[in-house]
Specification:
Aminoglycoside 3'-phosphotransferase, Chain: A, domain 2; 15% strand; 14 helices; globular; 3-stranded antiparallel sheet; 6-stranded antiparallel sheet; alpha+beta; disordered N terminus; single chain
Length: 410
Amino acid sequence: MTTASQRPQQAENNNAIPAHMGELDAAWLTAQLRSCRAIDEANYVEQFEIDPLGDGEGFIGELGRIRLSYASEAPRAPASVIAKTPSRILQNRGLGVMMGAYENEIRFYSELAAHVGVRVPECYAAVATPEPRSAAIANRIVSRLPGGLALRALGPLTRAAAKTPRRFGLLIEDLDGLAVGDQVAGADVETASIALRHLARLHANTWESQLLDQPWLRAADNNAAFTQALFRRAWPIFRERYDSVLPPEVVRLGEYLLDNGEALLKRMARAPRTLNHGDFRLDNLLFDPADRDQVTIIDWQVITAGNPMPDVSYFLRTNLLPEVADRVEQDLLRAYHEGLAEHGVKDYSLEAALADYRLALAWLLHRGALLVGLLDMSHDRGQAIVDRAIERSVPAVATVTPQELRAAGI
């Protein structure tokens, strides 16, 4: 736990966004809480303490509970907030910048959160410095390069992105009284059912919405050629690491995706489009012990616009034990589909949803290999999350064949 005490600096320094949790100061906290009118101009943060959170869970960001003390009574001010800053691991920070993860979450809270129809934490600050012109130009160049050329530039680009002067800062509601899901332990059927009801509500509320046309919101197939090149590089790493749990059927599917993964990514970006959370799993769901049906969804860094079924397959097959998922999968998929209809979606048949779900199981393999090959898993729990996700999803992924993908035009 870190403790700090200081009066706010001069006004011209109040908006100096911390590069990481270690740079957090009372001046910046004061400026943000004044900006959202949680405290008045005469008050300020006199002391604060940082309790690091999410060891091994925040792969591309740091998370901390900030306990606040004010110079004078502040009835509207929070006693604590959750702060989120980019990772200090250079590889992960660089990837976060290149993926747009930090900007995604800032933009989500400032532009989308009020419209998604699900409970998210109250936001006190979602701020970022402007993107440097050089970085914007580099991103445009990379997006137009063939995948192989972009891949060869990945190392230098990631290192350059990690050193960007751009800053991102997020302060959100501390929901300490809620129970955080545990992906390593896994979900029971009741919890999975509750989670999917909320996912259906999120998807239905953003179904083919104009919200998806935000210029910063990436499509599910954004830079698909580059992503496919990354998958090709990551696949041998993934195979070696999980050789003992990969049946021949999964290896064959992965080898098929070496040539056809880009087509799969493009298929998952086709209509019907909705807002995909991108990391919808137990660790990002907070449950109210007094009312389990009340769920708060956190971590909006990897949102995209695309087909909803990657979110569904990612939750069902990485959070449930395989034998449980096999038994209840069809019932949960039907309940999810009924939830879409209940919230206004009328043009997506159950048959179409089930067909897309099968494709999304192949997408799970593509995404899993990609992440294993890219991220620095520096913590035991972070590695455990990935290991459980792979082990649980493999049996279902093994049921998808190259012939099935070919029949779907992939």
